[in-house]
Specification:
heterodimer; A: about 170 residues; mainly beta; five-stranded antiparallel sheet; 2 helices; globular; B: about 140 residues; alpha+beta; 3 helices; about 35% strand
Chain lengths: ~170, ~140
């Protein structure tokens, strides 16, 4: 399958950490014994877990990489000019984004619920692009990216759609 | 816990507190778990001095993840078929968040929900929809 160049192994410890981070104590995400008694019969991943595929994307631009400059603070508030997210065709990803890219929308469609042992292959394609006048003036440029996550049997497990927005003016705050 | 069509009526709501006094540490936890290390979410000097924000702020996906808990608590484990949101406003350290689910439609074997998450001032930070299998 022609994917995004990496696979996303779904692992129990990763699900545990992700569930802790979103503040969800549901044992379906951490306790094999309790999960066995629940309807799925085994540990499953929380609904937004596919987002953590970023961990396995070798080129993910919002992770510091050995030997490369990083734009977070060190001696100075910023270490380097942030790479524009559009450089990787991932405008606005990151739920806050770099510079003027913002995460506008996120959609998940579950064909089945994945769990430890599944190995997903993401296949991304650019979606629609459109423009809108912002409420406070300035153009808003939206772009969509659709990712299909196929499992180890080649079956479609999850489809995600991300909408990013780039603003001409700095994003509104508050 | 599973939902039954006979127990659901359009307009019915489920409200759930997601977080009180959101801590920067939780935002850092989410960065580590999700792999999104954008310094806007964890690096105060960068967020304030380089990017011009009043402080760091939560990943939109953290708010979506916390809101997902309210949905799965309501519909049950492994029942979700669709979940989509629009990010309406930023979530800051110290915020209290509450999600409200409203039954929109009960169809054959499936329920559609409207999903809204607000902060302590009643400002919508997230709005979307979810669908789940029901008995």
């Amino acid at each position: 399958m022609e994917g995004d160049g990496y696979t996303f192994p779904v692992e129990a410890s990763h699900i545990l950490m992700f569930a802790r981070a979103i503040g969800d104590p549901n044992p379906i995400y951490s306790d094999p014994g309790e999960a066995a008694k629940a309807e799925p019969g085994k540990i499953i991943a929380p609904p937004t877990f596919a987002q953590a595929s970023a961990q396995f994307n070798p080129d993910y631009f919002l992770r510091p990489k050995v030997g490369q400059s990083w734009f977070g603070s060190g001696k100075n508030p910023t270490g380097a000019a942030p790479r524009r997210s559009s450089d990787d065709g991932e405008e606005g990803s990151g739920g806050g984004g770099v510079g003027r890219g913002l995460h506008a929308e996120q959609h998940f469609e579950y064909h089945r619920h994945v769990g430890p042992g599944d190995v997903l292959t993401p296949v991304s394609k650019p979606g629609k692009r459109w423009e809108k006048e912002g409420r406070r003036g300035g153009k808003l440029m939206f772009s969509e990216s659709v990712t299909e996550y196929y499992d180890q049997n080649g079956e479609l497990a999850i489809t995600t759609r991300m909408v990013g927005v780039q603003t001409e003016k700095p994003p509104e705050q508050g | 816990m599973t939902l039954k069509a006979s127990e659901l009526k359009p307009g019915q709501t489920h409200e759930q507190k997601l977080v009180e006094d959101l801590r920067r540490t939780q935002i850092v936890q989410y960065a580590g778990a999700s792999g999104d290390y954008n310094p806007l979410h964890s690096d105060e000097p960068f967020a304030t001095k380089a990017a011009g924000f009043p402080s760091v702020f939560a990943h939109g996906m953290l708010t979506m993840g916390m809101t997902g808990r309210a949905i799965t608590d309501f519909v049950g484990d492994g029942r979700l078929t669709k979940y989509g949101v629009r990010f309406m406003a930023q979530v800051w350290p110290g915020d209290d968040l509450t999600a409200t689910l409203t039954v929109k439609e009960v169809r054959d074997g499936e329920v559609d929900l409207d999903v809204v998450t607000v902060n302590q001032d009643g400002v919508e930070v997230l709005r979307g929809t979810a669908s789940a299998r029901i008995d």
